[in-house]
Design goal:
The protein contains 1 helix and 19 strands. By secondary structure, it is mainly β. The strands form 2 sheets. Strands 1, 7, 8, 9, 10, 11, 12, 13, 14, 15, 16, 17, 18 and 19 form a 14-stranded mixed sheet that branches. Strands 2-3-4-5-6 form a 5-stranded antiparallel sheet, covered by helices on one side. The radius of gyration is 19 Å and the shape is globular.
Length: 331
């Protein structure tokens, strides 16, 4: 499983690093535009393309003044119905971990660390299919409601404005906010009601889920290590889709290379060996801030400027605590 660790200065620099990794390490097809800070990624033998670009966003608040931050937008094309997903609050970037593999289904997990202990994830590639259908392209990213952070509920992982990877509440907004696109999967089959299913729990019939926060998968990610021998429970991310818009969900695939794990016993980014394979472990966002708390006690997470009295209340929150992500790792 190829791996790259870099320290990009901003999202434009991160896209340049990603383009170099995908072209020269993965030997995928990449069209990189240094002037526009974009990269078009295509995987040999697969129709879907993944377009990476920088989206700047400015937010103004009477208590905090103007806040500028950057978004990594991923747009999926080459499929019957295209879509996009957005990864935000990337100011500053201290590290970017990129894992990928294409020995079976091609995939890549992009993990940013902004403030120390705060992580943001995006996934592109293809699913391991359950059943027979065409397509299988998938792309999604985490989204946090930081700039609404004036009430404690906004900092909770199950708040309606939060989008966890491969699941989550948020429906892309048309109200001028930065629009955390919820991502989706491609399922092309004559009996399916649509060819695109969106990772959202609201405003739409043809939705999908099964990631962190989902009742079918998420609770297992909090299982404690076995006390007798210390063995660790990790389990696949099983994607379900409402194929016929009838409120019944059907398993359609597993996310390759990524597992759910209780991250509480581990250091940030720790690599552990499980079943003869190495896995690198991160929080879904932050494991140190308690549920419903902001971490804005004056010390702040360091990724957003404080107000006039030094309060870092305006931050990404993201108290996912024990919810962790394990990704296949090559040192």
């Amino acid at each position: 499983m190829p791996f790259n660790l870099s320290t990009p200065s901003d999202v434009a620099n991160a896209i340049a690093d990603l383009a170099d990794f995908y072209e020269n390490t993965m030997e995928w097809n990449v069209t990189y535009d240094a002037l526009d800070n974009t990269a078009l990624i295509s995987i040999p033998g697969r129709p879907a393309t993944f377009f990476l670009e920088v989206i700047p966003f400015s937010y103004s608040n009477s208590n905090f003044g103007d806040v500028d931050f950057e978004i990594l937008q991923i747009t999926v094309s080459g499929v019957p119905t295209g879509w996009s997903t957005r990864l935000g609050w990337l100011n500053p970037i201290t590290k970017m971990h990129v894992h990928a593999d294409d020995t079976a289904e091609p995939w890549s997990l992009i993990t940013f660390e902004s403030a120390p202990g705060y992580f943001h994830h995006a996934f592109i590639g293809y699913m391991e299919k359950l059943g027979t259908y065409d397509g299988g392209a998938i792309a999604d990213a985490t989204g946090w409601p930081g700039f609404w952070g004036t009430f404690g509920s906004e900092w909770q992982w199950d708040n309606e404005n939060t989008h966890l990877l491969f699941d989550g509440q948020y429906e892309e907004s048309e109200d001028g906010s930065w629009g955390r696109g919820s991502g989706g999967i491609e399922v092309t089959h004559a009996d399916a009601g649509a060819d695109f299913y969106k990772f959202s729990n609201s405003n739409g019939s043809f939705n999908c889920g099964g990631g962190w926060g989902n009742g079918h998968n998420g609770t297992l990610a909090w299982v404690e290590p076995v006390g007798v021998d210390g063995s660790l429970n990790i389990h696949p991310v099983i994607i379900h889709a409402n194929l016929n818009a009838n409120n019944y969900i059907t398993p359609v695939g597993c996310v390759p290379g990524v597992r759910m794990v209780n991250c509480a016993p581990f250091e940030l980014g720790q690599v552990v060996s499980i079943g003869g394979q190495d896995w690198q472990i991160f929080p879904m966002c932050n494991k140190d801030v308690a549920y419903g708390e902001t971490g804005g006690d004056g010390s702040g997470p360091g990724n957003i400027q404080p107000n006039s009295i030094g309060d870092y209340r305006l931050n990404i929150g993201g108290a996912t605590e024990r919810w962790g992500i394990a990704v296949l790792h090559e040192a």
